[in-house]
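pls read this stuff:
=====
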Amino acid sequence: MPGGTTVVSRRRLLGTAGAAGAGALVVGAGAGAAGAAAVRGRPEPLTSLGSASAPFHGAHQAGIVQPAQAHGHLAAFDLAPGTDRRAAAALLRRWSAIAADMMAGRQAQDDTSGVALDAGPSSLTVTFGFGRSFFDRTGLADKRPAALEPLPAFTGDALDARRSEGDLWVQIGADDALVAFHALRLLQKKAGDTARLRWQMNGFNRTPGATAHPMTGRNLMGQIDGTNNPKPSDADFADRVFVPEDHKGADAWMAGGSYAVVRRIRMLLDTWDHLSLERQEKVIGRRQSDGAPLSGGTETTPVDLDKVDRDGALAIAGDAHIRVASPATNRGAAMLRRAFSYHDGFRDDGAPDAGLLFIAWQADPMKGFVPVQRKLDRGDGLSRFLRHEASGLYAVPGGCEKGEYVGQRLLED
C-alpha cells in the first residue's frame, strides 16, 4: 500500500467464532487490543475449538461418554498370520502411547509427518476394542466374554462381510479433520507387520458452534437424533453402559469396559424425500422442526405413548420409530448411541451412498442392542427406508492408568 502502511481487513480482524459456546465478539477496548495484536502479527485465538481435550487415562476409555465430534473414522484390523499374544500386546502398547500423546496435544514419538503439527488436540478421542476372532488368534479363547457372542441375523440385514467384524477395532473422533486423519494414519503405520487394515469408514457430524446454542444433532434424514439417549446424570447410566467395576470371572478384565455394536446403515434418502413432511413425522413420531413428540410438548417432553388425537387414533403411530425403540416397549432395554453420518459418493442409480455409522454402547449387547433391534426388525416403519450393510461387535476394555496400555489386564494377566 502507499507509504508502506499495513491495512488489516475487517475479515482478518474479526474472524469467526466457531467453537461451541463462543460468545459475541468482544467490542470496544477488547476489539482494539485484538486489532493491535493482528497488526503486530500476533493474532489472538479466534476459537477454543482446537484446544479442547479429553483425557486418555482413566477408569473408562475416552470416546464413549464424550459428545461425538465433527469428524470420525472407524477402522478394523486383522492380526497377521502367526501373530501371538506377545505381539498383540506390543501393538496395543504402541497404539496407546500414540493416542495418549495426540489426545494431550503432543507430537507422538517418531512422528515427523507434520500433518497436525500446528493443531491442538481438538477434542481427539481414540478408542480400542477386541472382536470375537481376536481371542482365537491370540490363544485367549478362555478369556472371551460370553457377551461377545455373534449378533443374530436380522431380516433387514444386507451385510458385506468384507466391511464387518475384525480382530481389532478403532474409533477415532476429533473436531478437526486433519487431527482425526493424522491419528488414523499413525495407528495404521504403527501396526507394522502385526495387523492389517480390514475395513475403514469415515463419518461426520455438525461442527461445534454451528448453532446459536447447544442442540441435539440431526441425521441425514433431517431428523433430530439422540433426544432419548441415556445421560450420564441418570441414576442407572453406568449400569446400562459399563461393565461393573467389581465384575468377576474369566472376563474380569472387562471391568469398567463396554460393548460397542457398530452398524453401517445406508439411508434410502431419495425414497424418504418423496414422503410428505407430515408422513415423515409420523414415521419417526416427532416433529422435524424441533424434535417434539407428536404427543405434544417440546423435544425433551416425555413421549406419551397412550395419547390419542381428535379422531381417536394414536398420536404416536403403532409403527413409529420412537414407539418401537422406546425402553417402555422393550422392557427397559436401552443403549447409548454415539453415531456419525457418512456420505461415500453416489451409487450407479444416482442415489447417494449415505447414511449413519451407528455405534451403540452398552454393558451387555444381548440385553441392550439385540432385543431392541429385534423389535425394530419386526415392526419399525422407518426400517423400510434403511439398509444395514455392515456390522461388528467389539469388547472395549476399561481405561488404563499412566504407564499402562489399553487391554493390559487381558494380555498380561
